[in-house]
Input
Amino acid sequence: MTPITVDRASSGDGRWSPEAGLPGLGSTVELADDFFTSKNPIEQTRHVIRLMVRAMPDTGTTWVEAYVESVDGVHQVRGLGPAP
Output
């Protein structure tokens, strides 16, 4: 298992590093300062999922929010964590 490195994003809302192969996610995530200061835990989780989906090479930009909503739906059905 590769540890994840968290760095400060120099611009934008952050990014997850891409990597060849499946699922296409590298081990570095960059987060904007407002991730820590203005997002609650649910918003933070949804944002990290959004960054992951954006990094996957086989997922078009029009599908990003659908992935976030799908993961949230599974979360709610399984009764895990805080309710949104």
